[in-house]
Amino acid sequence: MITLVTLEDAKAHLRIDSDDDDADLLLKIGAASSSVLNYMKSGVVFEPKRDASGSVELDADGNVVYTRDVRFEVRAAVLLMLGFLFKNRDDDADSAFEPGYLPRPVTALLYPLRDPALA
Predict the structure, then answer these.
(1) For a FRET experiment, which of 25, 36, 84, 116 has its CA 20 to 30 Å from that of 6?
(2) Are 109 and 77 in contact (CB under 8 A)?
(3) DSSP-based three-state secondary structure for 80
């Protein structure tokens, strides 16, 4: 399973100081990460590698070279999704999103990065 944020990131985002919810948080981090990856299809979640001048690096075939750093928009989307999952453990009481869809703030961050050809 790929997780796009750390437990420490999640606890800081949710302002949790204890270790009491760690198991639940790890489950929800995995679920939020998977939801974002599913939405992205083959869209790139990692930052492109840049040379000293700030230009994006390309490999010998002309393809972009990526780092293992998760893009800021993707990390923020995972943390937002995690917040929805953590707050609404049993139900979407605030009707923040339609069944089968991600919450609008999450998709707003991810939509420009998504590969539309694989929708």
Answers:
(1) 116
(2) yes
(3) helix
